[in-house]
Amino acid sequence: MAALSCGTCGLHIGMQVLICPGCGSVQLAGTGGHAPESRPAPVPEPDRGGWYAAPGGPDIRLVFAWGEVDLPRGTESVIGRDPASPAFDLLADREAVSRCHARIGVDEQGEVWIADEGSVNGTYLDGWVLRPGERVPVHDGAALRLAADVEGVVRIRL
Question: Which residues pair with 43 in a beta bridge?
Answer without folding.
Answer: none
